[in-house]
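Quick illustration, no need to memorize.
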Amino acid sequence: MEPYFSDRKNLYNLTAQNVVKRKYVDVISARLCQFHMSAKNVNSRGLKMGQVGVSLKIMPTSPEVDLEAVKAKISESLKITDSKIEPLAFGLKSLTILIITPDKGGSGGTEEIEKTVRAVEGVESVEVDSVSVI
């Protein structure tokens, strides 16, 4: 699946419905597009810059870990914009979350977020799924 931000010329024409129609079935991508196009994030020239959407895939330590509880613990320290729980195999599920954060510029922008998520009890690993400037 190609990222929906790959076509910068059509960026302002995208809506969540168009993302789904164009076979971008990733719910996180559609939610990020909705956030991007919401009135509070659009200024007179189009897009308010300076924010980054970070999608993280979180793996639990075991199938018995309650991912809703993990999500609640993460939301105490980070603002989660959207989330979904996906089944993997043998009863194991993963949690994918979307976090909108200010763009600090430079490299290493997701390290603090990853460190915060890894510190939560029940989290085995954290993988950055995607990072998009919005």
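The longest helix spans residues 27-37.
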